[in-house]
Amino acid sequence: MTEPAVRLRNVHLTLGAGRSAVHVLKGVDLFVERGESVGIVGPSGSGKSTLLMVLAGLERADAGEVEIAGQSLVGLSEDQLAAFRGRNVGIVFQSFHLIPNMTALENVAVPLELAGHPDAFERAERELGQVGLADRIAHYPGELSGGEQQRVAMARALAPEPAILIADEPTGNLDQETGRQVADLLFAEREKRGMTLVLVTHDPNLAHRCEREIAVRSGEIHDDRMRSGMASAHLGETLESRPA
Ligand SMILES: Nc1ncnc2c1ncn2[C@@H]1O[C@H](COP(=O)(O)OP(=O)(O)OP(=O)(O)O)[C@@H](O)[C@H]1O
Ligand SMILES: [Mg+2]
User: Which CATH class is domain 6-226?
Assistant: First the structure.
């Protein structure tokens, strides 16, 4: 069996210091197979975004094992973590996080260029075409609708062909119809590229589109189940509830 896309074991993380310290992740175990789609749900403040940050190598666990795409992140330097992210992880945020004084094309191409891709601009143009924005590449983020901005952010996340796509409430700032279109695109690209998808959402409909749903409560995995009719990647079972 190939190594899982995500392997977390007993991960703890406290954010903040002194009186504002919060024990956010309290012993999280999480395994995600390659190619699986996982929707993470849970109340506000339960630690969902923090968990994604750990998966992305943007936050370091205080304790426990973190292995992403076969690589242990424990003990990596900041530079090594950045290089790891560039190769393996694409991230999409609720509020798009585009650079306002760069065009759509530059927003996608510049990170590729910094990562050493020689054909960064051609590739960026292709990726923007894939998300339906061929006629918007010279627009600045302020000249794009929310849905279009999120599609630029998706093109940027997908362009390096990451093994794992992480999305934190990717439709949270969009109206229902636009959100559905962005989600359609997200799942279509994931299917086409065989990527692992881990997304956080407050939208039950979006979570239901994932093969597996995980509920987080107070920094712990509270529930973890495959969707009915969808085969577990490694057990071949359906409607399986995994103990947290
Ligand atoms: N830098 C920080 N210092 C201290 N506490 C923090 C810090 N960042 C987050 N927290 C706390 O950690 C908890 C989890 O935050 P997190 O952003 O992961 O929640 P969430 O589940 O994503 O919530 P939401 O659904 O509202 O986005 C919150 O109670 C938050 O106040
Ligand atoms: Mg959050």
Answer: alpha beta
